[in-house]
């Protein structure tokens, strides 16, 4: 599993590569959460953020992280 980030200025789109999961949650690192499959998020402030993807299935929880910089 993993995810891709498409960033344009202060807007990011995230895409999951995970398959066969029960649920997933996106945490954008600025107190914003999404359960959308392919969410888009606009950051209000500059800085470094860690985007987390939390994937769960019947047996486990997987947390993946990617650091981004908003200029």
Write the layout of secondary structure elements.
Elements: E1 3-8, E2 11-16, E3 23-27, E4 33-34, E5 40-42, E6 47-56, E7 61-70
Antiparallel strand pairs: 1-2, 2-5, 3-4, 3-6, 6-7
Keywords:
single chain, 71 residues, mainly beta, 4-stranded antiparallel beta sheet, 3-stranded antiparallel beta sheet, 0% helix, elongated
Give an overview of the whole structure.
The protein has 71 residues and is mostly beta strands. Helix content is 0%, strand content 59%. The chain has no helices and seven strands. A hairpin with a 5-residue loop joins strand 3 (23-27) and strand 4. The chain starts with a strand and ends with a strand. 11% of the residues are buried.
How confident overall, as mean pLDDT?
94
- Helix tally equals 0
Radius of gyration: 12 Å
- What level of helicity do the residues show? under 10%
Question: Which shape, going by the Cα principal axes?
Answer: elongated
* Gap between N and C termini: 28 Å
* Total beta strands: 7
The secondary structure category is mainly beta
Largest sheet: 4 strands, antiparallel
pLDDT < 50 stretches? none
What proportion strand?
A: over 45%
Q: Within the largest sheet, what's the order of strands?
A: 4-3-6-7
Topology pattern, helix = H, strand = E: EEEEEEE
Quick take:
This protein has strands at 3-8, 11-16, 23-27, 33-34, 40-42, 47-56, 61-70. By secondary structure, it is mainly β.
């Amino acid at each position: 599993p993993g995810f891709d980030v498409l960033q344009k200025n202060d807007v990011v789109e995230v895409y999951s590569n995970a398959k066969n999961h029960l649920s997933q949650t996106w945490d954008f690192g600025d107190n914003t959460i999404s359960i959308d499959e392919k969410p888009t998020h606009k950051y209000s402030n500059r800085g470094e953020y860690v985007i987390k993807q939390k994937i769960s299935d019947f047996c486990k929880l997987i947390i993946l992280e990617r650091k981004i910089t908003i200029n």
